[in-house]
Amino acid sequence: MVTTQSIEGPEIAYERHGDGQPLIFLHGGMAPRQYWNPILPHFEEYGAVIPQRPGFGTCLDNPAKTSADEVLGREVQYVRALADAVDGDPILFGHSYGALTAVEAAADAAVEAVLAYEPAVLPDSYRKEADLADRMATLIEDGERREAVKRYIEQVLHPDGIDDLDAWLAEWPVWPDCVKLAEEVVRMNRAVEQYQLPAVLDVQAPVLVMTGTGGPDFLRESARGVHETLPHSRLVEFDSVSHSGPSEAPERISAEAEAFLNV
């Protein structure tokens, strides 16, 4: 693990693999840094930079007191600081909440390109139903932390239902450690529920927006919305791939990303 200190921002801890052009991987909701392990071998020519999100094991002073309004701004700040710290203009590769952070950070950071898999943006048609943060918070207050995290998994990772969630969780590498992050996930979800996609995202770098037909319909709709707000964007939809696309189908995702970056 390498650590760098930005001049005005938080301390940033990250892993570095390889010596090529920096490719910064930004993980999403419940995922740890290890989320990217399946796709890393497909980008060996790059210098992979994998940070630990603030509040997810970093030296953030007091993540428990960080409000929902501050969450996205805090993460955009650390991504910009990290982009400035690496040599050359990096590429940002974000998944879910990490994809939203990547797109927002690219508005002011010097980056060569952005790869965004299903940015965590809610379409207006779905926003009225988006009460996940409140439902999770109520469960946490009642001492049901595991059940709170299960609601997130059911709504985001398995929106069509799953026959035996407990059996699936038993095989999930980050369970039950991710239960410790329950409050952080509530704040993250509140930030997503409050975020309004602007008419135009002022990102001059080219952006590859990716989505899969096997994930939540609202995220696929949101991917199209993000694509339409960007001045230099390409939208790719992967058949039968879920919200966990980068780890679920690394060959397909990386091949599309390489084709986009090598144009």
UniProtKB/TrEMBL annotation:
Domain of life: Archaea
A Pfam family: Abhydrolase_6
SUPFAM superfamilies: alpha/beta-Hydrolases (SSF53474)
Domain AB hydrolase-1: 23-255
Name the record gives this protein: Pimeloyl-ACP methyl ester carboxylesterase
Source organism per UniProt: Halostagnicola kamekurae
Origin organism lineage: Archaea, Methanobacteriati, Methanobacteriota, Stenosarchaea group, Halobacteria
